[in-house]
Amino acid sequence: MNFATLFEEKQYEFISQYFGMVNTIQEALNYLEPCLSDLAAEEAEFIISEIHLSLEQLAESNTLLNRVFYEQEGILDALAQFDDLIEYMWMMDDHSGDSTVIKGVLQELMPVFSKWKSTIESEFIPYLSH
User: Fold this and answer.
1) What pTM did the predictor assign?
2) pLDDT tens figures, 26-52
3) Helix 99-128, helix 73-80: angle, nearest 10
4) What are phi and psi of 23, to 5 degrees?
5) pLDDT by residue (tens digit) across 104-125?
6) Inter-residue contact 19 to 100 (CB < 8 Å)
7) Which element (helix H / strand E) includes 87?
8) I need a labelling partner for 66 at 20 to 30 A (CA). Which of 47, 81, 99, 117 fits?
9) Are 49 and 69 in contact (CB under 8 A)?
C-alpha cells in the first residue's frame, strides 16, 4: 500500500468520524427541545454539556481540516461558518438553567446548524465517495 492510498484511507476515516459526530450533535439537538418542554432540567443540562463537548471536538478537528484542505476555498468557508454554532452554545451556557431562553436559542440554532451541516456535507462529498 502506498502513502497516497494510506493517506486517502485515513482522510476518509477522519471525515467519516467527523460526520458521525455532526449527526450525533444533530440528534442531541433534536432531543433537547422535548427535554426543555418536559421540564427535564437535569437531562437537558446533561445534553447541553455533551453537545458543548462535541462541538469542542469538532472545533479541534476543524483546525486539522483547515490545514489539510488549505487550498479548498469552499471547505474553508464552510468550516468558518462553524464559529456561528459556537456563539449559540455560549448563549446557552450564559443562560444555563433558564429553559425559556435556552428554547429560544435552540430555535435560532437549529436552522443555522442544519444549514451548516448541509454546506459542510456538500463540500466533503467528493472525499466521502470512497
Assistant:
1) 0.85
2) 999 998 888 887 667 788 888 889 999
3) 170
4) -65, -40
5) 999 999 999 999 999 999 998 8
6) no
7) helix 82-94
8) 47
9) no
**Helices 99-128, 41-68: inter-axial angle, 10-degree rounding:** 30
For residue 90, give the C-alpha cell: 455560549
- Which phi-psi region, left, alpha or beta, contains residue 56 (left: φ > 0; alpha: ψ -120 to 50)? alpha
The residue assigned the cell 433537547 is 32
Name residues whose C-beta falls within 8 Å of residue 8's C-beta, 6 or more positions apart in sequence: 130
pLDDT higher than threshold 70 for residue 2: no
Tell me the one-letter amino acid at 20: G
Beta carbons within 8 Å of 111's beta carbon, 6+ residues apart: none
How far apart CA 108 and CA 104 sit, in angstroms, is: 6
Q: What's the pLDDT at 28?
A: 93
CA separation for the pair 125, 46 (Å, rounded): 32
- Find where cell 455532526 sits: 22
> Interior CA angle at 29 toward 23 and 35, to 5°?
140
Closest CA to 105 of 56, 24, 15, 32: 32
